Amino acid sequence: MEEGLDGLMEKLKTTEISSIEKRNFSDYDLQSANCEDGYCITGDCTCG
Amino acid sequence: MEDIKFRSAWLSITYDCNNRCIWCYSNSSSNETRKNTMSKEMLNSSRKLLKDLGIEKITLIGGEPTMYKGIEEIVATSKEMGFNVGMVSNGRKFSSKKFTKKIKESSLDRLTISIEGSNREMHDKITQVPGSFEQSIRGIDNCHELGIPIATESTVSYINQEDLPSLVRFLKSKSIGMASFNVCGPCLTKEHNFTVQPKDASDLLAKIYKTSKEVGLKITIVTPQPLCNFDQELIEDILKNKAMNTRCYSFYGRGFVVDFNGDILPCVHYSGFPFFNIKRNGDYISKDEFLEEFFSEGKTADKFRKKLWNYPSTKCAKDQDYGAKCLGGCPLFWFKFDPEEQIKGK
Q1: Contact yes or no for B84/B109 (Cβ under 8 A)
Q2: What's the average model confidence in pLDDT over B260-286?
Q3: Contact between B209 and B165 (Cβ < 8 Å)
Q4: Contacting residues of A for B171, CB less than 8 Å apart
Q5: For the whole model, what pTM was predicted?
């Protein structure tokens, strides 16, 4: 716990692949799954 | 930062809980964490900050939010502030019609009730509270009767894996409008053995999806999955029917969690590992200070998102689907498992 999120991140197993581009997180699809006003689960959507 | 549009925020208002779910990610079963409850001052200050940030939708979570004293007032005052308000609950308090009426009168917009098995034996085995199944089901019935729209949430684990098709049929029989399914993930503060390996999760989720189609139940698979782990034809059908969430706001920075103590978290699973806290030197930070901490290059939040946007596996080939449709799975699982072993690839 003392290490905080910065320390925790070091344990996250992800791979930097220099030969291919990183994903672009400014260019994303707005579609969420089965999201309807009143039944929103993730809140990460455009309904409601 | 002028064009920043947050979609949603979650408020972890208490870690107290009347269930003791064996795999609880927030460790709400422990006596120590159950005491962690948001103060009224923190609640009011955080809601004001969320308004300043332009957030329209909030979801109350925990722990068990109905354990918070005066929860109906929190919902009602949040509504008065103009929020769309949701709650994730185990539903047990809704077994009281009096309580359900109070929540109905508070104008709650969304309620998600957790159901972990199709029957008393399975559900109560997971919640570790005898009688919890009956109470949650009575809660669903009361909500139906009083016209509170309900979704359900169920956690897919190795414990209930055989029960999953029965659970789907049971939820259909209870007239659930939307059933969501999470995959049991690792707890960052306590090791447990219930985490489902991503390479197994695809088979379990396939069973759920096929049964849901048979019985006509609308479902959402909430936990992002490596799409290549599924049969190609099946995953195309799942996506076409919007039955899988392929998004996670921790990647995009379009949402966050306010923990009980004012910590800002990437998602509810990261309690104890905050980006930052909204209280600084005795005062609450402003909208501009929040945005600075949340988006500026080199800050923890920025470094975290950049780390997520690495590829989890060398098998994740760059193609037109990647990024827009596949996140490579929920990153939480890559704290415990090696994605090279878990992601099948095309």
Answers
A1: yes
A2: 95
A3: no
A4: none
A5: 0.93
- B59 contact A CB<8A: yes
Residue B312's alpha-carbon distances to A7, A12, B343, in angstroms, are 18, 9, 9
Closest CA to B15 of B190, B142, B221: B190
Q: Is the pLDDT of residue A26 over 60?
A: no
Contacts of B335 in chain A (CB under 8 A): 8, 11-13
Cβ-nearest to A21 among B218, B313, B318: B318
Using the 8-state DSSP alphabet, how is residue B311 labeled?
Answer: B
CB contact under 8 A, B275 and A16: no
* Per-residue pLDDT at A46 exceeds 50: no
pLDDT at A33: 57
Q: Would you put residue B281 in left (φ > 0), alpha (ψ -120 to 50) or beta?
A: left
Give which of B220, B276, B337 to mutate to test A binding, by max A Cβ within 10 Å: B220
Lookup result for tokens 């956690």: B155
Residue A27 has pLDDT above 50, yes or no: no
What's the complex ipTM?
0.80
